Amino acid sequence: MISGDIKSNGCALLPGVVTGPSTKIMIETLNGMLETLEEMSRVNGLIVRETFSDFFNLPQITDVVKDVLGTDSPILLATRGNASVSSDPGDPPHSNNYEWGNIAPGISIVTACLYLDKIDDTSGTFAYCPGSHLKYYPPYTEVPTQADIDAGTYEEVYAEAGDVLFRIPEVWHAVRPIGNPRRYITGFWVNPDNAGKFLSERVERFLEVRA
Ligand SMILES: O=C(O)CCC(=O)C(=O)O
């Protein structure tokens, strides 16, 4: 099961989740949404969630999320649409540590990124350092420095439109330079029973608004 790889490596690709015609429709939808917004690179999470609810509810996705987080009731806390449509330098190696410099309780977040374009050397491959997310949890007591992150050994991920990349946010990662359109939507799930201090506050606010 792919969830074992996600837990130990911090990343794994599930190929062919959405088929060609559906990715075309999703691209058109995402493009239409982007045209109505000033900010070209981000789409309001709520709109994405409503528009792409079929994707975020797919059992192929949610079963993996539940297994990785060890809960039957994960919360889809945020969604995002990204569209780099022209050349972009990408992102240097970094980690997304939602405890802001503090050790996290363990794996409590997983993201699923659905690529709507082919991801290859001409269009921003995603690179990550397998296992690096584990350095943000006990028994470690201090999070890695940027120098540690820069010294990591990175593996490239190549993907087709319709593939889904699951990721633990703390894993060290980078985006290589982008040349062609590189569009994707992302869901961000959290285990409400295992969220750290900062995420617990976000979860509480989310549940209040939803109530
Ligand atoms: O665009 C991507 O594939 C990853 C973006 C990224 O680096 C991040 O969300 O921190």
Structure explained in plain terms:
The structure is a single chain. With about 210 residues, the chain is an alpha+beta fold. The protein has one domain (about 1-210): Sandwich (Jelly Rolls), CATH 2.60.120. The protein is about 30% helix and about 25% strand. It has seven helices and ten strands. It has a six-stranded antiparallel beta sheet with strand order 1-8-5-10-3-2, with helices on both faces. Helix 1 crosses helix 5 (about 60-70). The longest helix is centred in the N-terminal third of the chain and has 16 residues, at about 20-35. The model has no long low-confidence stretch (mean pLDDT about 90). Bound molecules: 2-oxoglutaric acid. The site of 2-oxoglutaric acid has 6 residues, from strand 9.
